[in-house]
Amino acid sequence: MDVALDQGKVRLSPLTKVGAIPVSLTALLPFVGYALGGGMWHWLTIVLLFGVGPFLDRWLGEDNANVPAHLERQYEQSLYYRLTLWLYLPVQIALVLFSYHVIIDTDMALHAQIGLALSMAVGVGFGATLAHELCHHPSRLDRFIGVQVLCLCGMANFLVYHNYGHHNVVATPDDPGSARYGESFWQFTVRNISRKFVMSWQIEAQRLRRLGRGWLSPRNLMIWLTLNELAWVVGLTWYFGPLALALFALQYAAPRFLLSVGDYLEHYGLSRRKLPNGEYEPPRAIHSWDDSYMLSNFLFTAVDRHADHHENSGRPFQILRVRPEAPRLPYGYLTMIFAAFVPPVWRRLVHPVLEAFYEKGEVVPHALPGALPERFVAGAHIH
């Protein structure tokens, strides 16, 4: 899909060449494990993504290619990228039905059941990155497909929180999705998951109040999203029996856990400056962490080009840019996920980079009380 110009060929990001297909291929790995004979092969997804993935990400290296400005409109309007996003929903549904059937209706060893269940949950969870993209699109069809993907992830509230909450309060003390300097991932994830759920209902209640309606109004989007999610739960339980509830609980937990890690990586320790009028400055590239590793970029549908996403939330994934002014994670998401799990490792890797970024004086530190080095305390947002 290289674009020929008068002066030769344009260097494009591999993601721009293939679109969102890698995420659908990831969701097909459990089928491959089954075809190879099952048993330990049901762990194929977990081993490839989290065992081999970080090393392969490092070996493939960084992908800093941006679509040239004069070609952005051409790539933005291409239907191909939307099709690669739409493709995931039937793959996701097939993965869920296949996994439930094999685990519940066939005779499997316990280790194989666990491997397939985890592989399914991870395959479903990675779909949240595509749903994130679709829910930012103006097309009602795209948002509908995105919502269905989210409902199978157990994250129906994401649309409301992310589009109408996170993007308004990102990198401020008001955002449960922005981690503080000195806050471990394990502290953050409890606050993140619980407060985002509550915030979603609050956002809808406030919107309806402005319209003169109560929160139980049939116009409450959260009610419809929740019913949509429950319809999947009821349907799967009716067809497969009570064990389906346990599998859906795993579908519910794993994607939220993965999303929480992503949130932790994206805004750790960064805050916007408060203006004299009491408002915060608009989000800029300096308020989000970037990562440009190729495999991470593939599997997270360019969410790791996060600085450009927050400065230009309407920019589709295929033309998101690596922003040199943003702080850069030391490694790709596939590696930094594991670093986040071990607070001493996270601090060793990230704090030197973050403190060097603080030294520039462009961003306000966002920290837990007592966590910041003294030289950064003045003017910091500490809570």
Features:
single chain; 383 residues; globular
Would you write up a description of this structure?
- The chain is mostly helical and 383 residues long.
- The protein has one domain (4-382).
- Helices cover 60% and strands 3% of the residues.
- The chain has helices at 14-18, 21-35, 44-60, 72-76, 79-86, 88-105, 110-135, 140-152, 158-169, 185-210, 221-240, 243-267, 294-299, 306-311, 333-341, 343-359; strands at residues 4-5, 8-9, 270-271, 364-367, 381-382.
- Strand 1 (4-5) and strand 2 (8-9) form a beta hairpin.
- The chain is globular and about 65 Å long.
- The protein starts with a strand and ends with a strand.
Brief rundown of the structure:
The chain is 60% helix and 3% strand. It is built from 16 helices and 5 strands.
- Decide which structural class fits the backbone: mainly alpha
Q: Using DSSP, what is the number of strands?
A: 5
Terminal residue distance:
49 Å
Strand order of the largest sheet: 3-4-5
Query: Could you estimate the helical fraction of the residues in percent?
Result: 55-70%
Mean pLDDT reading: 93
Whole-number count of domains: 1
Number of helices: 16
Radius of gyration: 21 Å
Low-confidence stretches: 1-8
H-E string: EEHHHHHHHHHHHHEHHHHEE
Query: Given the C-alpha coordinates, what overall shape results?
Result: globular
What does the main sheet amount to? 3 strands, mixed
Question: How large a portion of the residues is in β-strands, by DSSP E?
Answer: under 5%
